[in-house]
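#onboarding

Welcome to the new folks! Below is a worked example of what a typical request in this channel looks like: someone posts a single protein sequence, and someone else replies with the predicted structure as tokens. Don't worry about understanding the tokens yet, we'll cover that in week two.

Example request:
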Amino acid sequence: MTMKRLATTLAVLSGLFLLYTGASFLLAPQVTAAGFGVPVWPQGGGEGFLMVKGMRDIGFGLVILVLQLAGQRKALGMAMAAMAVVPVGDMTIVLSHGGPAATAYGVHGLAAAVVAVTAGMLLRERSATA
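Example response:
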């Protein structure tokens, strides 16, 4: 598999995964929050905060997929590099609120690494005219 194909695959999978997690937070916020790594605290109206996370993920997923479909690979790389701070922030939030370290590092830390590596691969690509 070429680096370009690998970067494309990782970007598309990242976008689809974000759409899935976003929809999960919108449809079943209490259930999905447990997998995020923080205590499932919000009840009733507080579930809206979990839904905000869902919309954030859907928005990021759409940005990734739209840039991919538009063929804007350099912009996609820059966007994903910027987005890599989000799972790092999520990891920090989970750790600072007593969540499991395994979830913090295994879910959010790994996500940050995959997003950053994908961004790096996209940004290192040479254009067809180069």
